[in-house]
Write a structure and sequence with these properties.
The complex is a heterodimer of chains A (about 425) and B (about 150).
Chain A lengths: L5 E2 L10 H11 L11 H21 L6 E4 L2 H17 L5 E5 L4 H13 L2 H4 L5 H4 L8 E5 L9 H7 L4 E5 L13 H11 L2 E5 L18 E5 L10 E5 L14 H4 L7 H16 L1 H22 L3 E3 L10 E6 L4 H12 L1 E2 L15 H5 L4 H4 L2 E5 L6 H20 L2 H10 L2
Chain B lengths: L6 H8 L12 E7 L4 E10 L2 E10 L2 H14 L4 H6 L2 H7 L8 H21 L5 H4 L5 H9 L1
Antiparallel strand pairs in B: 1-2, 2-3
Helix pairs in contact in B: 1-2, 2-5, 4-5
The chains are: A alpha/beta (about 425), B alpha+beta (about 150).
Chain lengths: ~425, ~150
């Protein structure tokens, strides 16, 4: 058994970088002043937060005053959608557009908006007729298809936009299959139609170039721990001039837009990690793309009846997502972990409390029985060629081991004459 | 242990007992379906009313493979009556417990044994229902799991 783990689940979270830890340490130790305090001990913390804001702005192509720190990607998505939708509703626009394969932080928030504004949400009072929202006040949601390659088509968006459309939310890159969306084109369509455009860039930030202003994005969510920053900190970029109401009410932090004492160490660590990632982005992407393509090529050569999920080119440099027919993903993960200390992920229903397989794999039209056998390997700049070699070496054996015991595989072989 | 599963589950998953097909089986039961993500196939050879040999094949998660493995150990050498009396609770106990949303795997193990015994009687031209009772299909088990 290998003595070290092979960490291939960087889409779940990443190792905190040394630079991020170094940037955080002063604010976890001696420098604990509250940024809102007037004395210089507090103002030193204030300066750390403002330096971090500048760093994030520079990395993502926006102005520092457009950066708001949050607790992470989920809070940012909730803030953008709930308050973005409310803002547009005040202008009589209650139609929302998103995609079928967004992160649950987006999909569940949209469901909540729809549910809370539906007549049934209000008819518990005896005066239901008076209190139920008018049809015009109800949010309706259109989810765009993402096709077999997992990429939204801008033409579909242009067609879906109506005079009632207030907000569009399309993720920058998908968290499971890594497909990159045509964000600049979507931004242009939304801007021309006077529609707010939010993008969940949690998987993209620090990995591929983002130009907030140039891509005509109004709202962008990011999360620190996806690019070697700390957990529990993220950000929402809000285009200057957009008066989004607060999600978290309270004190006057973040220019009065997001209450709560600043996570000083967190934002300092996130900013340091983002700056580091931006500095090495091109070289890292080149290296990981090569490793990614080698993984895909060699796994496909070694294992029959397997397929790559998501577009092979419009894809994050670090994402591999494949399905192996006749086996179930959770048992594959267990063997990879137990026997070879390889950390990976699956879209199989068996890893959740439900029997529903990954909505992402369903959205790209993967048959349910095939989706159970999916494996996501997500690399980082720290992934070595030796680790890739090892995964390629051991994975076929684990798939074979499970297939030998699988009555489903037996049926597939019989039907296909394998 | 820092595994998601108990040591017993991991042991039966990593080193499953009685796995494979049984060439001279005289009863074969299959439960579950591919869409739900688990299929269990139980092969038994009954001699003089005793489960003389047993094998299984399972498509499914770690606890499904472990549940079928431990169940084969629990019925091997036992009479048909004893095999039919095996409950999913006993399978869970033998595995040192299962996470709540994996209880369903132990039910599949129990039912796949009943299905194999039913098949054994059918092959003899005997109506299995009065002896074995109702064997649940995969879909019925899934809907119970949902409820």
């Amino acid at each position: 058994m290998p003595d070290r783990i092979i960490y291939a689940d960087n889409a779940a979270t990443t190792r905190l970088s040394e630079a991020a830890l170094a940037a955080m340490t002063p604010y976890l130790t001696g420098q604990y002043g509250n940024p809102s305090s007037l004395y210089s001990f507090g103002q030193q913390s204030r300066q750390a937060v403002e330096r971090a804001r500048h760093t994030v702005a520079e990395a993502l192509g926006c102005a520092p005053r457009e950066v708001f720190f949050t607790s992470g990607g989920s809070e940012s998505d909730n803030w953008a959608l709930k308050m973005g939708a409310a803002l547009m509703k005040s202008r009589g626009k209650t139609h929302l557009i998103s995609t079928a394969f967004e992160h649950h932080a987006v999909l569940h928030t949209l469901k909540q908006l729809e549910r809370d504004s539906s007549p049934r949400a209000a008819d518990s009072s005896p005066r239901a007729a008076d209190s139920s929202p008018r049809a015009a006040d109800r949010f309706t949601v259109t989810l765009l298809p993402v096709y077999e390659n997992g990429v939204v088509r801008p033409a579909d968006l242009a067609e879906a936009i109506t005079p009632q459309t207030g907000l569009v939310s399309v993720m920058f890159a998908n968290n499971e299959i890594g497909t990159i969306q045509p964000i600049a084109e979507i931004g242009a369509i939304c801007r021309a139609a006077g529609v707010l455009f939010h993008t969940d860039a949690v998987q993209a930030a620090g990995h591929i170039p983002i130009d907030f202003k140039g891509m005509q994005i109004d709202l962008l969510s990011l999360s620190g721990h996806k690019f070697h920053g700390p957990k529990g900190v993220g950000g929402l970029l809000i285009r200057n001039g957009l008066r989004l109401d607060n999600l978290i009410a309270g004190g006057a932090q973040e220019g009065g837009r997001r209450a709560g004492t600043e996570n000083v160490a967190g934002v300092a660590g996130m900013a340091a990690a983002l700056a580091e990632a931006a500095g090495t982005m091109a070289a890292d992407a080149e290296k990981m793309s090569r490793q990614r393509d080698r993984l895909i090529r060699e796994i496909q050569a070694a294992i029959p009846r397997c397929r790559l999920n998501g577009d092979p080119v419009l894809r994050l440099p670090n994402n591999v997502n494949m399905s192996f027919e006749g086996i179930e993903g959770e048992s594959l993960l267990l063997r990879l972990d137990y026997v070879d200390k390889i950390c990976a992920s699956t879209g199989s229903a068996c890893t959740t409390n439900s029997l529903v397989p990954s909505h992402v794999l369903m959205a790209i039209g993967l048959p349910v029985e095939v989706s159970h056998g999916s494996l996501r390997l997500s690399l980082s700049a720290e992934t070595t060629d030796e680790e890739i070699d090892h995964i390629i070496k051991v994975l076929p054996g684990h798939v074979d081991w499970l297939r030998e015991k699988s009555p489903l595989w037996e049926n597939i072989c019989r039907n296909e004459g394998i | 242990m820092d595994n998601f599963y108990s040591p017993e589950v991991m042991d039966h998953f990593i080193n499953p007992r009685n796995v494979g097909e049984l060439a001279d089986a005289n009863g074969i039961g299959e439960i579950g379906n591919a869409k739900c993500g688990d299929i269990m196939k139980m092969y038994i050879r009954v001699e003089n009313g005793v489960i003389a040999d047993v094998r299984f094949k399972t498509f499914g998660c770690g606890s499904a493979i472990a549940s079928s493995s431990v169940a084969t150990e629990m019925i091997k050498g036992k009479t048909i009556e004893q095999a039919l009396a095996l409950s999913n609770r006993e399978v869970i106990e033998a595995l040192g417990g299962l996470p709540a949303h994996k209880i369903h795997c132990s039910v599949l193990a129990e039912q796949s044994i009943r299905a194999a015994v039913a098949d054994y009687y059918k092959r003899l031209g005997i109506d299995p229902e009065p002896i074995v009772g109702k064997v649940f299909t995969g879909e019925e088990l899934e809907s119970m799991h949902d409820a």
